[in-house]
Backbone:
């Protein structure tokens, strides 16, 4: 896309345009410079928007609960399956339901 058509975009549309270009470049298999050359885009503008949009993107975090050896409940039973997987039971209230399901 060349000059005049992106000059008429609002700031939000401009950000959306560059986000689309960045997404397409990432899936194209081309380097940023190759992509810009192929699609007649300014590589400097591409780098600018890539940095700007990355900084604006919210950081996605997942909560993690870390248990130390002292805080882990005792293993009351371990069920070993034929496929090598195992189920460890830490709560005795689950044992009656588990045993009933095995009948």
Residues:
């Amino acid at each position: 896309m060349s000059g005049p058509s992106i000059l008429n975009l609002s700031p939000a549309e401009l950000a959306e345009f560059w986000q689309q270009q960045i997404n397409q470049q990432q899936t194209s298999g081309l380097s940023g410079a190759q992509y810009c050359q192929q699609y007649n885009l300014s590589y400097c503008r591409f780098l600018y928007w890539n940095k700007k949009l990355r900084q604006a993107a919210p950081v996605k975090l997942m909560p993690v609960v870390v248990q130390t050896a002292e805080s882990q409940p005792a293993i009351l039973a371990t069920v070993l399956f034929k496929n090598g997987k195992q189920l460890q039971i830490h709560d005795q209230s689950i044992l009656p339901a588990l045993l009933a399901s095995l009948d």
About this structure: Residues 11-28 form the longest helix (18 residues). The mean pLDDT is 83.
